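Re-running the complex after MR caught last week's input typo. The corrected sequence lines follow. Everything else is unchanged.
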Amino acid sequence: LKVVALAGGTGSAKLLRGLDKLRIDLTVVANVGDNVWMYGLYVCPDIDIACYTLAGVADRARGWGIQGDSHRSLEQLAKLGTPTWFKLGDMDMATCLFRTRLLREGATLTQATRSICSALGVSRNVIPVTDDPVETRIVTPQGDMHLQEFWVRDGGRPSVTRVWYRGARGAMVTEEVKAALEGADRVVLCPANPVTSIGPMLAVPGFRTGLAGCEAKVVALSPMVGTSPFSGPAGKLMKAVGIRADSLGVAKLYSGFLDSLIISDGDVSLKEDIASLGIDCSLADTRMTAASDELRLAKKVLKA
Amino acid sequence: LKVVALAGGTGSAKLLRGLDKLRIDLTVVANVGDNVWMYGLYVCPDIDIACYTLAGVADRARGWGIQGDSHRSLEQLAKLGTPTWFKLGDMDMATCLFRTRLLREGATLTQATRSICSALGVSRNVIPVTDDPVETRIVTPQGDMHLQEFWVRDGGRPSVTRVWYRGARGAMVTEEVKAALEGADRVVLCPANPVTSIGPMLAVPGFRTGLAGCEAKVVALSPMVGTSPFSGPAGKLMKAVGIRADSLGVAKLYSGFLDSLIISDGDVSLKEDIASLGIDCSLADTRMTAASDELRLAKKVLKA
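Corrected-run output:
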């Protein structure tokens, strides 16, 4: 079974860990909207968490970075007067150094990611949705800021008046992504922030129509339980862009290409409204606290 | 007393530590010939060892880097398939990240070095001899290579047919260096490799004449004991460029601007030949094994 998984950060990594245990041909299409130049390095949090997860080295408790990593470089950067609100471990920094050098030498982000996966022993295919820079920007009364500034530096506290994707209009879906979608039997949207993880992908011209036009069944595992996401600022940002902050909001955002949505047992009241959008809706315990949950839900998204 | 110290690496750092204990106005002019792009970062070993030494954080036993540093990033880079023969600690890497970012943002090497010193609490003035890239190149039968490739990667083993300083001809001595030489009461050449530490400085147009023309007395502490340097590849490289590999060779290389040379007690037989070059020559126990040696020799170079 050829499966393409669209992945963002922490929540997505959990489902990826489950999918990775199955005998499937898995390609991960990673979000690039949270990529950021930091400390002179090109940091790709969503690509890296996917690679680290599939390499078995991800810091599971923290939800990002490499297990057992230290922060000596960052502490020294702080001593040198650099603001270090964006945490990056020493080993994690090596990934970013490696990628930044490859990019400066002319590699595409797809090629650099392939090199990282290969070096980390990841047999699954991890590809960014685009090789062009796309940046999730959060407009607040304090100014227009990068998603990382909003979420990590400012703790998600500023009011949000608008969200946009810098560079998206001129970006192109890569040939690798097109081929993956065309050859897929199943497309899985991992539980991810619809605005900052899936949103940047959908903003790249051709990606939404690629999803709508592909022969594969497109299934999503909702990141929402009631009006709260598993993690991250999904609720606040969904409201800011005028979407209901619940699984019905997710369904509306994905309607047009989504065939099936798995929502939390507790959100049974939304089932009818979701079905009325032409989306097959099923219920599950969508929390992933243990490895067994990850595997259970991975199996469920493939059967949905 | 305004003292300008010309400094290379490990040996120079010892004399700098002694000079730093004295009530003098000290400016360190650092070699740039061993600077190298490594892991996508601009590494300046001689500038950094001067800064770390004056900040009191240098790894004294090893002769480079920061005391207590770890190598997590480097180990991870190795896992990613990067050749990691050039050792760089995690904290040391932070310095390089910081500098590389400043340079990419348009700072000169002088400005970046000032920022690093200021952040590390170094009150002494550390300045590179030039803001232009100058690179010590070693020509061997295996090819023309960077000094670091010759010395660190290949362990100084290849035969050497020629040494040259890439970029030197078009480089310019900075205004800061000119002003330091003009205002100096004493110029001290720290014990340093004449070919790879002092040589690149002398190759920058105007620096040698600046030394010859300045009002300050110019004093050097020889890096040689007999035909061996305290550390590093000085002997082999001096022979390769056609200089005697001893303190007389050093004297000949510096004649024209050097007023006084302090050599090892054991080299008393060279004294007359050195004096015949018009250089005042004095003897000392030039080994610096303890802090007391560093202080003793620092006092001696100022009195020479």
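None of the earlier attempt is carried over here. Chain A has 13 helices and 14 strands. Chain A has a mean pLDDT of 96.
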